[in-house]
Amino acid sequence: FLFLSSKETEWMKVSGNLWEEDFMVIGETYENIPGQSKITFLLQAIRNTAAAEEARQMAAVLLRRLLSSAFEEVYPALSPDDQTSIKTGLLLIIQLETQSSMRKKICDIVAELARNLIDEDGNNQWPEVLKFLFDSVSSQNVGLREAALHIFWNFPGIFGNQQQHYLEVIKRMLVQCMQDQEHPSIKTLSARAAAAFVLANEHNLPLLKHFADLLPGILQAVNDSCYQNDDSVLKSLVEIADSVPKYLRPHLEPTLQLSLKLCADASLSNMQRQLALEVIVTLSETAAAMLRRHTNVVAQAIPQMLAMMVDLEEDEDWANADELEDDDFDSNAVAGESALDRMACGLGGKLVLPMIKEHIMQMLQNRLEEKATACQMLVSNRTVLVSYLLLD
């Protein structure tokens, strides 16, 4: 590795006591270090297990950002030996690291470096990282399996122009991990990795068709992770609905039914319920023709949206407020109102408005005395009002 100057040694010293030092001093010292040397001493800071965990994590974040923003300025200037040492060192640190959060940050660095080492022809100039992935995903060490999946999730294009060659291996790896009943983290990570791979190949129709049988596993992971207070896979499903809705077509009915179930489950957080509804609403915008064939689901989604719209905490001043508070934008009421408008625009009034009218009068009668302000919000919604006026 490159020899550290006095300025670099100074930074290493203050970073070891990161939370006791002035951040301005640390930042100034860091910026004064030559770019090529930053990689080396940041890696050394990460390796220093005697340092505070926060200091090591900051070094990891800085190294990833450096590779992301200034790779061409700093990495090619290193000698081949230094480059090899960095690549070897990163993979070794992952294998030795005992802290899960720190291991993930190192995996982020590996993914970023691998992303930059794919040349214009798609050649992966770091073949050792592929071997590391294959070895780790088959390891008995759960931490290493998590590391392999995290790297692949972060950079699903890591196989470069060899992706087609490894396609069956990739699929087998993901299927195997999604079937791991003993380790929920593996199941969740593999589902997120599968979703990321689908999103990265959104225009590859043969690949999407070949990987269609992974969707039931992704849906199961969505369900399981939500009840473990983790909405990461559900967010991935929303992304698929937005960018690759055609991938959902072979299993659209179970996708919609799962979304309805989660949306209706009051034991889940508001954010999770809103995300589940977002899957359906997004599909009404990105795949309207596909969703119109499932009018039963649309009919079940409408009362869910209306119920969200009247899910308001009592506030006597709400009706007189000129603007929504910041917290209101995350509320079920606002989410339900927005979803109703978007679905009506996406699927068309002829389909949606009769379904709305079927429910609003009963809701207004039932809640008029109980929740006057909520009912005011309900009838003030333009979609509900139009449906009432045009179809009365």
Automatic annotation (TrEMBL):
Q: Spell out the protein name for this chain.
A: Importin 5
What phylogenetic lineage does the species belong to? Eukaryota, Metazoa, Chordata, Craniata, Vertebrata
Subcellular location as annotated: Cytoplasm; Nucleus
Q: Which organism is it from?
A: Nothoprocta perdicaria (Chilean tinamou)
Chief location category: cytoplasm
Output the Pfam families linked to this UniProt entry: Importin_rep_4, TPR_IPO5
Q: Name one GO biological process term.
A: protein import into nucleus
The UniProt keywords, alphabetically, are:
Cytoplasm, Nucleus, Protein transport, Repeat, Transport
Residues of the IPO4/5-like TPR repeats domain = 99-258
Q: Name one GO cellular component term.
A: cytoplasm
